[in-house]
Description:
The chain is an alpha+beta fold and 109 residues long. The chain has a single domain, classed as GMP Synthetase, Chain A, domain 3. 29% of the residues lie in helices and 17% in strands. It has four helices and three strands. It has helices spanning 8-15, 57-69, 94-100, 104-107; strands at residues 33-39, 42-47, 76-81. A three-stranded mixed β-sheet has the order 1-2-3, with helices on one face. The chain is globular, with a radius of gyration of 14 Å. It starts with 7 loop residues before the first helix and ends with a helix.
Amino acid sequence: MTDVAPDTAAVWQALGTILDPEFGISIVDLGLIYSVECTDGNVSVVMTLTTPTCPSGAWIHNGTEEAVRRLAGVKNVKVELVFDPVWSPTMLSATAQQLLGWSSDEVHR
């Protein structure tokens, strides 16, 4: 039986299980994932961190790669860490804003 290559929805779902160790909120809801591409089992993720000096940066990066690698049908994983555009609180999902107790007015200041 051949594994079917994952689609972007499956990758996004897997990434949504990774919790930032400081906030306990998924890296997807924090807005750290910029893009996901899947082609024939090859998965590419472009992501950022809240700051370039994030003490959990290596853990989050490695966790991202491992979460994708565990999906059925994945052949290769590339996780690219970028800082352009720079992360800002405006990238928080409504769920993250609620969990942090922030209003959208506070986020968009």
